[in-house]
Amino acid sequence: MSFKKFGIWGNTDKEIFWKILPEILSWAEKNKIKPFLTRRIFEKGSFDVEIINSKNDFSKMDFILALGGDGTFLSLVRAIQNRRVPILGIHLGDLGFLAKVTLKDLFHRLDQVAKGDYFVEDRALIKANIRKEDNIIEHVSLNDFVFANGESFRMLNTSVRVDGHFVGNYKADGLIISTPTGSTAYSLSAGGPIVTPKVDSMIITPTSAHSLTSRPLVVPGLSKIIVRFSGSADSIRFVADGQIHETLNPKSQVEVVKSGYTVSLIDFKDTDYFKTLRVKMGWGTRGEE
Questions:
Q1: Could you state, in order of their start, the residue ranges of all structural domains in the chain?
Q2: Annotated active-site residue in 57, 70, 105, 270
């Protein structure tokens, strides 16, 4: 496959981004692949490069670089939506699970992409339909949805149903519904399981549950999860992928299902999910150096 265009999406607040960007543009010129910058990057820099003017322009790209950390990657996924453009995550910080490529091997990986020596892995997203008074608000996440009490000193009371069946009432500091991709994010820190991306599922994890019998639950990916609220909370915080915030009231209802589209990640034959766990998270080690 011969690539002609690629987009660049990045965390412009990181100094290292501005140091590496000219090198990427030089690589693009050398390989005769036309780069496109987001308007934010273009306006902060001084490059003679074409601009991604709208979300529809993403569809014209052969692939997109996400330069930053996992937050940068997640914001790009939200911008691309269902346009199915492969993303290559370039990690510029300390710990990145979605942005797998480091600066050390950046150009080696870019050369592989240019030669077609890569594969694309599709990751599932989840969709929340929030019934808020007379409105339906929709959000999509690659990692997770988080519910917490608007008043941080009070616990959150939630009622959860899966496919019409009552699961239970969770009394906890909060509740997380995550994808397998998000199982290594907030859900993991709250005691949830690691679920490999190919397992078609969703994970329901209470945070700091007020009962030892409240445990994380893995349900099939095609499930319909309904979350309702009770108790004395005046407001409930809803957060999508740690970036999008909504304030709900106790009468709100949230339906969570698998999204109708996936996101495409560029990966390579000499890496695998478990290697990423070992390298990024020290998985399988006992504290030895």
A1: 5-118+268-281, 125-260
A2: 70
Specify the CATH number of the domain 125-260: 2.60.200.30
Cβ atoms < 10 Å from Cβ of 188: 19
* pTM value surpassing 0.85: yes
CB atoms within 10 A of CB 18: 13
Calpha distance 150→162 (Å, rounded): 25
User: CA angle 81-85-90, nearest 5°?
Assistant: 100
Distances (CA, A) of 250 to 167, 188, 224, 262: 19, 27, 20, 31
pLDDT digit string (tens) for the chain, length 289 residues? 678 999 999 999 999 999 999 999 999 999 999 999 999 999 998 889 999 999 999 999 999 999 999 999 999 999 999 999 999 999 997 667 888 898 999 999 999 999 999 999 999 999 999 998 889 999 999 999 999 987 766 789 999 999 999 999 999 999 999 999 999 999 999 999 999 999 999 999 999 988 877 899 999 999 999 999 987 667 899 999 999 999 999 999 999 999 999 999 999 999 888 888 887 777 777 655 5
CB burial of residue 225 (10 Å; 0-12, 13-18, 19+): buried
Question: Three-state DSSP class for 93?
Answer: coil
70 tagged catalytic = yes
**Which CATH code is given to the segment(s) 5-118+268-281?**
3.40.50.10330
Contact between 5 and 33 under an 8 Å Cβ cutoff? The reply is: yes
Tokens linked to 45 = 């820099």
